[in-house]
Amino acid sequence: MTIAGYGKFFIILFVFIIFYSYAYSIYKRQKTGERDFEKYSNLVHDDSLDAAPLEKRERK
Q1: Measured between alpha carbons, how far is 49 from 38 in angstroms, rounded to an integer?
Q2: What is the DSSP string of 30-43?
Q3: Is the Cβ–Cβ distance between 40 and 54 less than 8 Å?
Q4: Model confidence pLDDT, tens digit, residues 26-58
């Protein structure tokens, strides 16, 4: 039981660290202006075929 308890603790700790790192990276990219995540949240309200694209794509 002790080994299972430690295993669960470290799995939860690992998942928490991964989630917190992801949330911090989103926060950092939003603050530095690298990516604007608020425009993606507007997709819920403006979801039509006539809507303008969110980002311009470069043709290769």
Answers
A1: 20
A2: HHHTS--THHHHGG
A3: yes
A4: 899 888 888 877 877 777 787 777 877 777 888
Tokens of 9: 């603790």
How many C-beta atoms lie closer than 10 Å to residue 29's C-beta? 13
Q: At residue 55, what is the residue type?
A: E
Q: Which of 11, 10, 37 is nearest to 23 (CA)?
A: 37
pTM of the model: 0.61
Tokens of residue 12, six digits: 């939860």
The CA distance from 54 to 60, in Å, is 19
- Cα angle 37, 43, 48 (rounded to 5 degrees) comes to 155
